[in-house]
Amino acid sequence: MDFQERLQKAIHRGLAKGVEQSEQAKAKRLSKEEIRSLYTKYRLDLSEHIEACMKHLPDHFPGFVLERLYGELGWGAAVRRDDSLIGSDGRRSNVYSRLEVAVKSITEHDVLDLQAKGTIRNRELFRRHHFQAIAEVDLAKFREMVDVWIVEFAELYAAATD
Hints:
The chain has 162 residues and is α+β, with helices and mostly antiparallel strands.
């Protein structure tokens, strides 16, 4: 077999392999219905986990009120607290603290997007995002992020209210 024949065979093998890989990629791609179904499943699981974790904050920090989030804000929960402080000069000021953790609405990019925002005494201390393509979601990692962010907020709040 001369060089030209080997070259032709290699090209044909390469083309066949390319077609095969393309077909495998198409088979792996999820349909829109499958993506929506997975998103709904993940959103429900995570929003329940968020609420289950957040409901403990008012037990440790009296005055916080738990609220469920749904709709345009995303799906999850928030805790908030409003305080009145009297300064050394006798003037009163109002401060608020809030932690919001939510799964944002699905986008055209088919991404599961978890977001958190923590504010303590009128100061935003953190804003976190964790996202991943729905077809590749590691739900355990998302649940871990929820836990980490809530614990982080509790630590920051405890330090700020010494």
